[in-house]
Amino acid sequence: MKLPTTEDRDPLSIGLNNKSDNDVLTLLLDRQRAALDAVGDAIAQISKAANALQRASQANGMIGYAGAGSAGLTALADCLELPGTFGFPPERMRMLYAGGAENLLHLAGTFEDDEEVGRTDFQTSGLGEGDILIAVSASGSTPYTLGTFRAAQAAGTETIALCNNPDTPLLDLADHPILLKTPPEIIAGSTRLGAASAQKAALNMISTLVALRLGHAVRGHMVNLVADNEKLRLRAQRILQDLTGCTAEIAMHTLLKADGRVKVAALMILRSLDKAAAERVLAENNGNLRPFL
User: Fold this and answer.
1) Which of 112, 115, 158, 185 is catalytic?
2) Active-site residue flag, 185
3) InterPro entries under this entry (predicted)?
4) Which of 189, 206, 229, 262 is the most buried (most CB within 10 A)?
């Protein structure tokens, strides 16, 4: 019986114990690079998925993620990182993880086998028409994740799937399927290696492209961040100085007035506005700072 690629064994894994540490590590790195090549082959699919996510974001739709095991952890990382990096509203983010938060420390595998739980998790998530659900599944056939997609389909929620095996149920169900055809893993079935690297790269590319199109990333800066700790305050100060040419003192003083919001502070400096006026002008331009730079 022919195994799925994600369960097959890489022929190069034979005899690893007889190789030096440096040779083993070099091989592992080479196979990571080979996995990333699969992302390049999926650029057109990734672009379509990013366009769908942008549309949902501009319509104030919710963004959901679904997954189980290590693929679910990759999805979870993206879900948690978007608010801090690009200012996606946390209240519009949803994470559907097999077994819930209680399963994050132990990753018990039984939870991913229940399609009905996936359906139920979707139904209680609040996702619906006008929203989007992004699922990550190396196998493309995880029952829990399939359950979330079948419920999403019934609810009119748009779907994006990232999978590493071709011709799989999740890709068939998805409105926007992304096949990341990575080679077999050095440790057969351990998809937290090459497959996960490809998944993470694709998710990073999707969110970064959307952030650029929405004006959340400008001139190489994450201008939609809210500076709520010392590291971010210093970063926000540097961003303001670069975008407006102001001094460090003016940048920090204006950030305080703007409650740490870089875009608002930038408009206050560039157009000599108070906070309320800057907020109004920003809203009139869909939160995009570019027209004022």
Assistant:
1) 112
2) no
3) Etherase_MurQ, MURQ/GCKR, SIS_dom, SIS_dom_sf
4) 262
